[in-house]
Design brief:
- Helix 6 packs antiparallel against helix 7 and helix 9 crosses helix 19.
- The chain is 78% helix and 0% strand.
- The chain folds into 2 domains: 45 residues, no CATH class; 375 residues, no CATH class.
- By secondary structure, it is mainly α.
- The longest helix is centred in the last third of the chain and has 32 residues.
């Protein structure tokens, strides 16, 4: 047994013991696993490297934190609820399209924040009662919300796993929009029909429309309520189109867009709203800090290089099988950790493919980590917002769609060059 493999076993073992046996938070378990790895490698307790690791994803942490503050403000202003109500009122005569659009509503916060938890806890919580009113049972509604959460996390404009994978080979996060849309939109449509259409088509949606609470929408108007989102999109476009003039960065864009949300709808305490948003984001932010330390120590001890070398030596026939199995399983640690530890070496092993499409596809597979126990953040939160006691039944419902997602991503990797010629 090589020293690097021994260190890796120690780190994974300590993490598993802390998370599964002792029920510690994932971030704490990753901290202890990092210290254990450094000790096993003969580096003692390298404070400097641990601190450097905590700042490894500081840009991502700021983006998630400010995006969560924006989404919570948009929700508290009544904008998110109005968006769902407006969607049902406008498209209630077309059940299939209505269900797909509500799925996109759930995806929206994840698209902005790069976090599946943001989608589930904000839009998922708003849409869950509407899914119930449309006749969708709790387990199916939770599964649809969970799937929409991870698809929103991968859809553009913000895809953190893709940023992490690209950062591992110094590939800028540019040109990912179309591949990510091609990857996520068809899966979102499939998920909506797979989980909900057979129930929605039997429901009298006209009766549901009559029960909608549209006071906020009628009082303030759709354009006014939705203007903070419009401001975000405009600033994002200007930031990319005119970087020399509007070089704002994602965190500042979300901060600037949060302020108008206070004036466009219902009044709310903006400080309490921000506090609630940060509390909701803390589990994800803590995981990112832990992942940063974990990756830093893996790099220090040579474990990361060991994984890269072995990934590159996998026979081509087994490479795709290894991607399909190892990335989601490692996602039990964190989908972000899986993106860094395994996504980067697999991208290097697939240098013959289109790199942008391949990185986007790997990020989609990595997102399945949010379904993997013990963390399973997307599935756990989805079950909670629907009102289920546990998330076991929700995970069972997600097995077949998850397998289809993996196959879809692998098809994009295998035919990446051909797909590239289509746009």
């Amino acid at each position: 047994m090589s020293q690097e493999f021994f260190i890796f076993v120690v780190m994974v073992g300590v993490f598993a013991a802390g998370t599964f046996a002792l029920k510690w938070p994932v971030a704490v378990s990753m901290l202890l696993a990092s210290v254990a790895g450094a000790l096993a490698g003969g580096f003692g307790v390298p404070i400097r490297h641990l601190v450097e690791g905590t700042f490894g994803y500081v840009d991502t942490i700021l983006t998630i934190a400010t995006a969560m503050i924006f989404m919570n403000a948009f929700k508290d202003s009544g904008g998110l609820e109005a968006l769902s109500a407006a969607t049902i009122r406008r498209f209630h005569k077309i059940p299939g399209l209505l269900l797909v659009l509500l799925t996109f509503v759930v995806m929206f916060p994840g698209m902005i924040t790069g976090s599946s938890s943001a989608s589930v806890l904000t839009a998922g919580a708003v849409v869950a009662p509407m899914f119930a009113a449309l006749g969708i049972p709790g387990v199916e509604a939770a599964a649809l919300i969970a799937m929409a959460g991870i698809l929103g996390m991968i859809a553009p404009p913000v895809n953190i796993p893709a940023m992490i994978i690209g950062g591992g080979i110094d590939m800028p996060y540019v040109g990912f929009e179309i591949p990510l849309l091609l990857l996520t939109v068809p899966l979102a449509v499939f998920s909506a029909f797979y989980f909900g259409y057979r129930f929605v088509k039997k429901t009298d949606i006209s009766a549901v429309v009559r029960t909608l609470d549209t006071k906020t929408l009628d009082q303030y108007g759709g354009f006014r309520l939705f203007s903070p989102v419009l401001i975000v999109l405009i600033l994002m476009v200007l930031d990319k189109a005119l970087p020399k003039i509007f070089n704002l960065g994602m965190p500042l864009i979300f901060v600037l867009s949060t302020i108008p949300a206070y004036f466009t709808g219902k009044r709310f305490n903006i400080l309490n709203s921000a506090k609630t948003a940060i509390e909701q984001a803390l589990p994800v932010l803590g995981i990112l800090v832990g992942v940063g330390m974990f990756i830093q120590i893996m790099t220090l001890t040579g474990v990361r290089g060991f994984i890269v070398v072995n990934a590159l030596s996998v026979p081509p026939a087994l490479l795709y099988l290894a991607i399909a199995i190892s990335i989601p399983l490692f996602g039990a640690v964190s989908s972000f950790g899986a993106s860094s530890v395994l996504g980067v070496p697999f991208l290097l092993a697939l240098l013959g493919r289109d790199q942008i499409i391949t990185a986007a596809s790997l990020s989609l597979i990595a997102a399945l980590g949010d379904f993997m126990p013990p963390t399973a953040l997307s599935a756990i939160f989805a079950a909670q917002v629907v009102g289920l006691d546990g998330y076991g039944k929700t995970l069972k419902k997600l097995v077949i769609p998850s397998l289809i997602l993996i196959v879809w991503a692998l098809v994009f990797i295998i035919f990446s060059k051909q797909i590239r010629t289509l746009y």
